[in-house]
Write a structure and sequence with these properties.
39% helix; alpha+beta; 203 residues; disordered C terminus; 9 helices; single chain
Length: 203
């Protein structure tokens, strides 16, 4: 424990150190979401590992230009190179080819949009939108520009850092989502304690 004085200092700290950003905050996942789109497209046959897609510097959706982060044209790219270069235009196009329902459905299966089940107070479920959510909050259905924007991890899609870590572990685990555990301490084989604090790890 800590003293009441130290606790009140933490509560008053403008940096809000007592707020669990790793599991209480939800942010646009950004480029960390792109592997989900690639996996969804590969899974349903929208692309293969050899499919090449032309990637100009930007792609137009209505009045909006969605630029590659480097603002450069890359020409034809296959999925491995698109992931390597984190090419926004590639994922915007593939996101619309595979459809938001497909890649957001996979995101849900990888833990987005729901709490992890850990005994954490105030854990956010994040947001994985659908047409009903968009109608309620944006007064329209999901459009091709939204589909492209979410495919690069932006827009209405929100996730906690914990959810992103679990998603990446699920992909690395061959699609099986690992169950999360809180660990108070870890023992080596010789039963020597190596940590007292609570830690989160995959099982």
């Amino acid at each position: 424990g800590i003293s009441e004085e130290d606790y009140q200092k933490l509560r008053a700290d403008p940096e809000v150190p007592l707020f669990g950003r790793a599991f209480q905050s939800a942010y646009p996942p950004g480029s960390s979401f792109k592997p989900v789109v690639a996996l969804a497209a590969l899974n349903n046959g929208t692309i293969t590992e050899h499919t090449s897609i032309d990637c100009p510097a930007y792609i137009q959706y209505g009045n909006h230009q969605l630029w590659n982060w480097s603002r450069s044209a890359y020409g034809p790219l296959q999925v491995e190179a698109a992931l390597k270069w984190s090419n926004n235009v590639w994922f915007a196009q593939v996101g619309n080819k595979v459809g938001w329902g497909e890649y957001l459905g996979l995101a849900r299966r990888l833990g987005f949009g729901s709490r992890s089940g850990l005994p954490l107070m105030g854990e956010t479920p994040g947001i994985v939108p659908n047409d009903e959510w968009m109608m309620e909050h944006e007064h329209r259905r999901i459009l091709s520009g939204d589909t492209a924007n979410m495919a690069i991890g932006q827009g209405s899609l929100l996730a906690s850092p914990l959810q992103v870590a679990q998603m990446m572990a699920g992909i690395a685990n061959g699609g099986a989502l690992p169950k999360l555990h809180l660990i108070r301490q870890i023992h080596r084989s010789e039963e020597r304690r190596v940590g007292k604090e609570c830690r989160t790890r995959w099982s």
